[in-house]
Amino acid sequence: MTYWLFKTEPDAFSIDDLKNAPEQRTFWEGIRNYQARNFLRDEVKVGDLVFIYHSSCKVPAVVGIARVIKAATPDPHQFDLNSDYYDPKSSTDNPRWVGVTLAYERHLRPVTLQAIKANPALTEIALKKAGRLSVMPVVDAEWHAILAMSGAS
């Protein structure tokens, strides 16, 4: 199994929104960074677990877990003229952007960015090194360290 951290701004879409979505599922759209897109397209697989991380808020933190239930498919918003995610350079024959479908697993007691930065077991976590990236891998030891910090197992 592979682990991931997906960032979201809670004012736009939060862990609560995922929990309250129809069937507790959502298509994770709007990724417009090529490295994040490449992770979604090439490496994120069905069954992978994802930390949901609230960013651009008062207290950035890992707040929950989701599971990938559908692999990457073209993000339909890239073709919608009325969408904030519209991309005039993308076409249905050659879509630039993809998303995956996530299912809610559970909330966690929040693990703040400050706590993550202070944990010596997390010195190499991508969140510290590629902080602006919206999709990033999490290695097994990091996953378990964050779970322990949240009081989960």
Automatic annotation (TrEMBL):
EVE domain: residues covered: 2-149
One Pfam short name: EVE
PANTHER family reported in the protein's UniProt record: THYMOCYTE NUCLEAR PROTEIN 1
Protein's name in the database: EVE domain-containing protein
Organism name: Pseudoalteromonas peptidolytica F12-50-A1
